[in-house]
Amino acid sequence: MTTHADDDVQPPAPRPGRPRDESRDDAILDAARELIAERGFGGMTMDAVASRAGAGKATVYRRWSSKSELAVDAITRGTRATLRAEDVPDTGTLRGDLAALAELRGRDKGDALMPGLISEMRTDADLAHAFHERFVTAKVDMMRSLLERAKQRGEIPPERDVDLLAEIGPALTVYRKVVAGLPVGPEYLARITDEIVVPLATAPAPGATGSVSG
């Protein structure tokens, strides 16, 4: 497992104090993105991020416990699923809900730096773990929630494997972004929704007749 000098420093124990300043988060994430763009992941350090953001190193560690977590959040900023399922309007259809989710997330902002991050993950297990937990898993969880909502409405057959379906969209978008190096825009997301996810999710079970909702 690859280690980094910054990773040997233990983050300070959290202490009660003033409410978290979200603007400071933005400054730290911006600084991390800039440093990764300039130096690569290997050249980004928590000290350098703190200095550029005008923050103390303890402030950075209170928000991100490791360099890997900070790098993933910085690069996937605008793509990481910080939304909750209840933030997505219930439009009455799975297709409508997925379109609403795409609109809320907007266009991905981490495309340019993503290939470099993936390259580093091949030799850095901590970074790979952080990427999976903070980016991929979040996307799958959101998809699962929207699919469960559709199942409760009667759009999806009760025996359909929602866990498996939830992996399809994120798998395709991650492949396109990190392997093919292509952007993931509204048109591509609409194609996944209309040509793959919705047809697979709502198709009647084998031998069933009539509509899913009856």
From TrEMBL:
All residue ranges annotated as the HTH tetR-type domain in the record: 22-82
GO MF terms held by the record: DNA-binding transcription factor activity; transcription cis-regulatory region binding
Alphabetized UniProt keyword annotations: DNA-binding, Transcription, Transcription regulation
DNA-binding region(s), residue ranges: 45-64
InterPro entries in alphabetical order: DNA-bd_HTH_TetR-type_CS, Homeodomain-like_sf, HTH-type_TetR-like_transc_reg, HTH_TetR, Tet_transcr_reg_TetR-rel_C_sf, TetR_C
Region (Disordered): 1-25
Top-level division of the source organism's lineage: Bacteria
Entry protein name: TetR family transcriptional regulator
Organism, scientific name: Sediminihabitans luteus
Taxon lineage: Bacteria, Bacillati, Actinomycetota, Actinomycetes, Micrococcales
